[in-house]
Amino acid sequence: MSIRWTYVFADRPAAHLASAQAFWTAITGTFLSAPRGEDDEFVTLLPASGVDACVKLQGVWSGPGGAHLDLCVEDVPGLVKRARELGAETVTEHDGWAVLRSPAGQLWCAAPWHGESVRPPVVAGSRLDQVSLDIPPSAYEAETAFWAELTGWELLTGALPEFRVLRPPAGLPVRILLQRLDAEQPAAAHLDLACADIPATRARHEELGAVHVADGRHWTVMRDPAGGVYCLTGRDPETGGLPSRG
């Protein structure tokens, strides 16, 4: 089962969707598609012509939101079947796509591939290129095995013991970071940007309405104007890797 493309979703409270749209289009150098869904809750962030989108926004009606991943394939029923064999459960089935839940409880979607093949460029020294799956300790090994088996991507050790990375084949736009949390809590997800210069990117994001939350070893935690947490990470925006690792 070959993953042909990936999308990341920033899920934000519907009441603040407009501010999320303004912020995320600005930092990614994109513009909005026409809204979709029964309540106009879905939009795609469209880059300049000649490249394909890989980021979408969704307005949610309960909770603070977060992030989730879409895996795009030529055979959606086949991906759903394989995911269920590996321990996922189907949440809802739609016409041509499905919402599933990973063994640790992370929501994601199996979606059809529409020929996407050219990833968006680096914008102002950064690129949104990673979804971090934040996993409780008791579920970490099984959840890592699930995503590694499902995607077939290369599993790498991270810069710290609590991190592993699934690196996709060249040309796919989104990596998966598997982060082991310090304490037992529900699985969640957030988005990461690879940044050539974290302080410069942070300053630009703050001008656009984001707020600094905390600093880590190789990253800075931010909160966007819609209240969603994301990270600026010190990685090469072209390769996605740490400068010394590629």
UniProtKB/TrEMBL annotation:
UniProt xrefs under InterPro entries: Glyas_Bleomycin-R_OHBP_Dase (IPR029068), Glyoxalase_6 (IPR041581)
Pfam families, per database record: Glyoxalase_6
Glyoxalase-like domain boundaries: 9-110, 138-233
Protein name as it appears in the record: VOC family protein
Species this protein is from: Streptomyces hyaluromycini
